[in-house]
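Q: How would the structure tokens look for this protein?
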Amino acid sequence: TGVTILMIRTMLSGVLMIGLPLVAASDTTLNYDDGGNMTRLVIAGGKVRFDDAREKNWMLFDGSRRVMILVDPEKREFTEMDEATLESLHATVDAVMTRMETELARLPPEMQAQMRQMMGNSLPGGGAARRMRLESTGQVSEAAGHRCGVMRMMVDDRVESDVCLAPASELGLPATDAAVVAEWQSFARSLAEKASRFVSLDAEIFGDGGQLPVIYDHPGSERRGVLTGVGLDPVDAGLLQVPDGYSENRMEAPLP
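A: Here is the predicted structure in token form.
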């Protein structure tokens, strides 16, 4: 579904960008200059918030609940994605696929081939999901006084973008916040495994836990984000929760 793909794609952006009790001294804010716009990653209280300067929506990972939340201020809505939700969506999609396969079987072979070619991976037998993986370039770069290793994001055999990663500990993150990053990456790996119908992800794309970008490119554009600084000042706890009065937009797989 469109929302599912959006959640997964945004999740990947967040994981390459990034319960515990709230300890003010351990709050971390990473600021990036993203093509003249400021993008922010906030880690505090067992949660991670990601704001893209050019998007109105923002993402929140709640480590205590192991859930990813997409917040839409314009619609005053939020959408939650956890492992149980994705498993339910997967089951619904499987049922839809089975019904579609039955309908396809009633068509002449030529029409079956045409339908599969038109719909691609959306139909049974339409082909494997795209494979996404990270490959090391062996290069090293630096920004804001932090060195990082350049990794290349590959989609099948096509270069998607580059990201330069550094261990969270080397960026000065307190142990509690570095642990939240590792928890987020563990969650993202689990979620991606359950989303295998939509996209195939190699495990190493999530690293070994606790890696964050120093420099990152945006797929399909010339935009580049560069770390400008890491702050360790306490943050407003309200930044790490869905605002009052927002309604939940539940994820459901549409039936044909």
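DSSP finds four helices and 13 strands in the chain.

The mean pLDDT is 79.

Upvote if useful.
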